[in-house]
Design brief:
Shape of chain B: globular
Strand content of chain B: under 5%
Helix content of chain A: over 70%
Largest sheet of chain A: 2 strands, antiparallel
Radius of gyration of chain B: 21 Å
Largest interface: A-B, 34 and 31 residues
Oligomer: heterodimer
Number of helices of chain A: 21
Strand order of the largest sheet of chain A: 1-2
Largest sheet of chain B: 2 strands, antiparallel
Distance between the termini of chain A: 45 Å
């Protein structure tokens, strides 16, 4: 049994523990212990992975566990990780851990809340460690469905509408993915023989070009819906604005990464020739998304909407970088996923905490909050600076890598796209600084705010854990970058072989 | 040794129950519930003992490993319905006719068993009629209610009509081949125009039973009028049995004209799924809602049949098994709430989770399983059905079906929304359901959770199934 099994067993045990808990307090502590253990196993996994690689183990995936599940259909319960998935698991564990503390105030049905939250998390963990397309898809849907209850029951605003819209759009995406997966399955044995869902095996063979061209749009759009690909991003602002704090954190921080990761791991990795031929269409869409999201954020007045649009922009940048098809940009894409995951989780956590104290999310109604809650104020400034890509924080490392990588493509089309996308940094600076200015600085606009208190201990744990993540990556990015580069080897090799030689 | 074991066992317990019922005074009729359930449980368990395949009556009746498994599946379903009905049967208005419920249901089950084991169209037809006529009596069970009586009449009329059409088709088959035995008919099917017409009539007759669009019009009215437990019987057991024998006959008798019937099924599948889904969205009454949802589910089953392969038949049977547990779970909850409060509309379920959390959870699991959400069994069932259809290259069909799963998710979520998200001034009051209902629902939940993970069930079905090639 490999260490990866823990990432499924711990959530299941935690859920069972929560169901048998007597009081609200006990529910929360069981969740904390469970997800704390999960975070510890994630850190252990990172260390073990680095040690293995340093010891010279160059296998494509490590910690493999392969059990046959449905024999006649050749479905396996196949777990394994490479550098990219290890990094994503670390991100997920951190965000989920912080999310538990950020939802410490939940009063209504806490048992159900934490069960759904951890169910969602287990879906995400399962997705990242699966190497079998069937189980991957299973975990993908498992991660999406609890969202409906989480937003619908504990959300705010037009929560019923947002929850339904989000669920149906994401499940629509998953319908596309399902078709793509089945299509790949039936083309996984070109020379006859046993069909397979095994991602590694499929990546070793080449699927006929016409099949690739048919399946690629389904898979890329399917995952792209979750990755906020323009124009399929519309669920995201509504969903985030209505969701409770921890759910926004998990959703923007982790769940949207499933989309980017799926595009990278399934669509581009398995169908590289089609990716080369059709990539330009999606590159245009991604570029539009980057700019559109950033401009959208400038227009918004509601803190959550600002951050949701900013997420659309940042996630589109991930897809943008993936579609550049070169090592540096791809590396930047993964870095951006992790950086944005932690950063946006921090943003949503802070917004939730601020809202809990001021009972408004409109920036015009607030002001001078730095005076009454210095801790949250400083944390917000840090998150903002990370978001606009200040050196020293993770955002800088990621965006720098992406744009350097993108600019390596010498043709005009890619250059123009890169220039347009890079200009979003300026727009980001506009909305981040504007929010920080009106929200935190200046005079206190409402005298009720004089009496509000700063962060509680559980708020602090959540915030500090996330800030630690941002600065760690910002200050010492090399280990992460190396780890990711190691994982990118096979896909780059495949993309290069499939390259038509034009660019 | 006993080739006709399943049928004989059922006949024996029917006779036992008849005798017991004679000696029960009118005020004591409810005492038959427990023995009936126990006897049915006994039969279900005995059915699982390995039996010997064989042929009786010169090939009219044939028992195979496959047919035994199908009968076991139906037995489980009927057992769950018996258990779920106990609470309803104990009610005042039913107390004089409790035994009739069991006797009628057992007769239909016997009919279905003969139908599944038939090796000849005559036996098939006799089984079909035996399965249909008591079902109509069951639909009219609450005869003092106008709607129930209406349901019974509607069911018997449509059944009679569809049987007539089917019989006409069978007569043409006899006319062109000179025999009624499946094995003898099969090689003589050449696709001659009269045979095609015969097939269409046969198909139409079966489509009535499975309630495929455009032969579905009776379904919603009958389900709405019939008692909930009878509606669940019609939607699960009756439909399941018809699907089983339909698949077997398509694969064993009409395989030579597979090209023709797969085109026909292609169109019917799209129609059935889409129409079922679109109508389900508009329903307020949960029985009508489940009726249209079950029409759509039947359309999904066709995806497996159209697969024409061993995988195709496997997925059909596997999905039917999953569907039995999921749909019985949903009907079970609707049934108990209808008995206790008389409420059957989706609006009435507002805020149900706050007052009856366990029932809402079962309902939620059942609906998620019907919608095909992992890790429940419905997900596996649907996934495999899509695989079976895609294996034949029907990617467009799969895509249409997939879009329909999203539509179906929408209306299943509407019920979940009512139960968990909405709040109400006058929610359904908290009540304690009886032990029978709890056991019945627990069996459904266990089925929904376990069947997906236990791949051995799928493998077992696979080993017994067969395809065209």
């Amino acid at each position: 049994m490999s260490i990866l099994t823990l990432f499924i067993i711990i959530p299941v045990l935690t859920i069972i523990g929560i169901l048998f808990s007597k009081s609200h307090m006990q529910v929360k502590w069981v969740a904390v212990v469970g997800m704390g253990l999960q975070l510890l196993s994630a850190i252990t996994l990172i260390l073990l992975y680095l040690a293995e690689r340093r010891a010279g183990n160059m296998a494509e995936v490590l910690f493999v566990q392969d059990n046959v599940w449905y024999e006649t259909l050749n479905i396996h319960f196949f777990l394994g990780v490479d550098g990219v998935s290890v990094a994503m698991i670390g991100l997920t564990a951190l965000v989920v851990f912080a999310g538990i503390f950020a939802s410490w105030d939940i009063v209504d049905l806490p048992r159900e809340f934490f069960t759904s939250l951890i169910l969602l998390a287990s879906g995400v963990f399962g997705f990242f460690i699966s190497l079998d397309l069937f189980t991957m898809f299973l975990f993908y849907e498992l991660a999406v469905i609890p969202m409906y209850l989480l937003i619908g029951i504990w959300g705010s605003g037009p929560r019923h509408y947002s929850a339904m819209k989000l669920t149906l759009m994401l499940m629509g995406g998953s319908a596309f993915i399902l078709l793509g997966i089945i299509g790949i399955y039936f083309n996984s044995a070109p020379g006859g023989g046993q069909l397979t869902f095994d991602l590694i095996k499929i990546s070793k063979l080449s699927i006929p070009l016409n099949v690739q061209l048919f399946l690629f749009p389904f898979l890329f759009i399917g995952f792209g819906v979750l990755g906020a690909l323009f124009p399929f991003h519309t669920w995201s602002p509504d969903g985030h604005a209505s969701a409770p704090t921890a759910v926004s954190m998990l959703h923007a921080g982790v769940l949207m990464k499933l989309g980017g990761y799926g595009c990278y791991r399934v669509a581009v990795f398995l169908l590289p020739q089609a990716a080369h031929q059709l990539g330009w269409i999606f590159l245009i869409l991604a570029t539009i998304g980057v700019i559109y999201g950033a401009l959208g954020a400038v227009w918004q007045k509601d803190l959550k909407y600002i951050n949701a649009y900013s997420s659309v922009s940042h996630c589109a940048l991930v897809l943008f970088a993936i579609l550049m098809f070169n090592q540096t940009a791809m590396n930047g894409a993964i870095m951006q996923m992790i950086s944005h995951g932690i950063m946006t989780a921090l943003f949503f956590a802070l917004i939730g905490m601020i809202y809990g104290r001021t009972h408004t999310r409109f920036i015009n109604e607030m002001g001078g909050l730095m005076k009454v809650m210095p801790f949250l104020g400083v944390a917000y400034v840090i998150a903002g600076l990370a978001s606009l890509g200040l050196p020293g924080f993770s955002g800088f490392v990621a965006e720098m890598t992406i744009f350097v990588g993108s600019f390596q493509n010498v043709d005009t089309f890619h250059r123009v796209a890169t220039i347009i996308a890079a200009s979003s940094i300026v727009v980001t600076a506009v909305y981040v600084l504007r929010v920080v200015g009106t929200l935190l600085l200046g005079k206190i606009k409402n005298e009720d705010y004089e009496t509000i208190t700063d962060a509680k201990w559980y708020d602090k744990i959540s915030v500090v854990a996330l800030i630690f993540g941002i600065t760690l990556i910002g200050m010492a990015p090399l280990w992460l970058s190396d780890m990711i580069t190691g994982g990118l080897g096979p896909i780059m090799h495949k993309l290069l072989a499939a390259s038509p030689g034009l660019n | 040794m006993l080739i006709m074991r399943h049928e004989l066992l059922l006949i024996v317990i029917t006779v036992i129950l008849l005798i017991v019922e004679i000696f029960l005074p009118n005020t004591q009729k409810h005492k038959i519930i427990l023995p009936a359930i126990l006897l049915m449980a006994g039969v279900t368990i005995l059915g699982f003992f390995p039996g010997t395949p064989g042929v009786l009556f010169g090939g009219m009746y044939q028992s195979t490993q496959l047919s035994m498994m199908l009968k076991n599946i139906l037995n489980i379903g009927v057992l769950i319905i018996f258990i779920q009905s106990a609470d309803w049967l104990k009610q005042e208005q039913n107390k004089e006719k409790i035994s009739e419920f069991f006797l009628l249901m057992l007769s239909t089950l016997i009919g279905m068993n003969y139908m599944i084991s038939s090796g000849d169209f005559l036996m098939f037809y006799i089984g079909l009629e035996l399965a249909t006529i008591p079902a109509a009596a069951l639909a009219a069970y609450e005869r003092m209610k106008e709607k129930s009586a209406e349901a019974g009449v509607k069911l018997i009329f449509t059944s009679a009509l569809s049987s007539g059409i089917l019989l006409y088709g069978l007569s043409m088959i006899y006319g062109t081949t000179g025999t009624m035995y499946f094995a003898d008919v099969a090689p003589l099917i050449t696709g001659a125009p009269l045979q095609v017409l015969a097939f269409i009539f046969f198909f139409a007759g079966m489509a009535f039973k499975i309630s495929l669009v455009p032969f579905h019009l009776w379904t919603a009215d009958v389900y709405e009028g019939a008692p909930v437990n009878v509606a669940s019987f019609l939607s699960v057991i009756s439909k399941g049995a018809a699907v089983f024998i339909f698949t077997i006959i398509l694969y064993t008798v009409f395989f030579k004209i597979a090209v023709m019937w797969s085109e026909l099924l292609y169109g019917i599948t799209i129609l059935t799924i889409t129409v079922g889904n679109l109508f389900a969205m508009r329903q307020q009454n949960l029985k009508r809602f489940l009726a249209f949802s079950s029409i759509a589910q039947a359309g999904f089953i066709l995806l497996g049949i159209i697969g024409q392969s061993q995988v195709g038949m496997t997925t059909v049977i596997y999905f039917a098994l999953v569907y039995i547990f999921s749909n019985l779970g949903a009907f079970g909850v609707v049934g108990i709430i209808s008995n206790r409060t008389g409420k059957e509309n989706i609006n009435d379920y507002d805020g149900l989770y706050r007052t009856n959390p366990n029932l809402s959870l079962v309902m939620m699991l059942a609906l998620f399983s019907l919608a095909g959400i992992p890790p429940l069994a419905g997900f596996f069932g649907k996934f495999f059905l899509f695989t079976a259809a895609a294996k034949q290259g029907y990617y467009i069909l799969v895509l249409i079906a997939l879009i329909n799963t999203i539509i179906s998710l929408y209306y299943y979520l509407l019920v979940i929304k009512a139960m968990l998200l909405n709040s109400s001034d006058r929610p359904i009051e908290k009540f304690k359901s009886d032990t029978y209902t709890r056991i019945g629902l627990l069996m459904c939940v266990a089925g929904m959770v376990i069947i997906g993970f236990a791949s051995s069930i799928y493998e077992m079905v696979f080993n017994l199934s067969f395809g065209l090639y």
